[in-house]
């Protein structure tokens, strides 16, 4: 079989997430460690975000979650990362979306709030992007990239006003993870789901930075070991939980974090866009949170609402109680969004 090509860099959580899924599913791949915007071959790819995956037929695609879900259709039944239970599959999608869209704020906060983190993160990215650079061009690129990212902090919600909230939410995730991680133990059984890969990707990048890594090692050492193993799970032979994983403690704990922090944020962002507001303010976990609107995350909101509405009745009934208990349910029943089809 002609291999897929994944174009990305190690410092991108979305690129390493896709690579980890390919490895687990034992799909043939070539890893091209380079930023796609520096390749002439990807100049016409829109949107040009990481990773860019070239399919065996030659087509280029971006956006990590749609790529992973597309692989489910192209390689059906071959070490799927979606639990067989439809309710569990939805919960896995929800936790992965929370990881992609909220934990990345925590990553950005830890990477670009302090000078030592700013330099370390930018230097890693520039080393991947420009492997041939020598001093002083390299230092100039690192400085330029760091300054650009620091200027973007408000756009993604990484402000001094929001700092304590972001730090507390990451601490809650680490506490939930530390209570269950072990070799060959994952959220929905002894095999990894999409949710596991979403958590792995953000945490692997966070623990690679000075402040974020120090925090992870101090409060969640077993989670650090779990994340390192998740780089390549091609040797895992596991099973989904026979009774479904939606009532398991770790799943419940992570859903509670998503219900406390992420879903209120998504709903407020969605309302602000509908009302034509450029920024929004919302109380999250009793604390003020403010950010410019983010249109992509309105799509995330609508996707989750549609996926929940489209569940078979029995599956939706099975997960409604845990979604209600963890504060997620009201945000998944938003009016005005039609079910799929």
Helix fraction bin: 55-70%
Mean pLDDT score, rounded? Answer: 93
Q: Could you give the order of the helices and strands?
A: EHEEEHHHHHHHHHEEHHH
- Read across the widest sheet, the strand sequence of neighbours is 2-1-3-4
Q: In terms of quaternary structure, what is this?
A: single chain
Beta-strand percentage range: 5-15%
CA-atom Rg in angstroms: 20 Å
Describe the structure.
The chain has 341 residues and is of the alpha+beta class. It folds into three domains: 4-74, 3-Layer(aba) Sandwich (Glutaredoxin), CATH 3.40.30; 86-110 and 156-332, no CATH class; 114-151, no CATH class. Helices cover 56% and strands 8% of the residues. It has helices spanning 13-25, 64-74, 86-112, 115-129, 137-151, 160-178, 194-206, 210-219, 221-229, 249-274, 295-309, 313-325, 329-332; strands at 4-8, 29-33, 52-54, 60-62, 279-284, 287-292. Strands 2-1-3-4 form a four-stranded mixed beta sheet, covered by helices on one side. The chain has a two-stranded antiparallel ribbon with strand order 5-6. Strand 1, helix 1 (13-25) and strand 2 form a beta-alpha-beta unit. The longest helix is centred in the first third of the chain and has 27 residues, at 86-112. 43% of the residues are buried.
What labels would you give this structure?
341 residues, alpha+beta, Glutaredoxin, four-stranded mixed beta sheet, two-stranded antiparallel ribbon
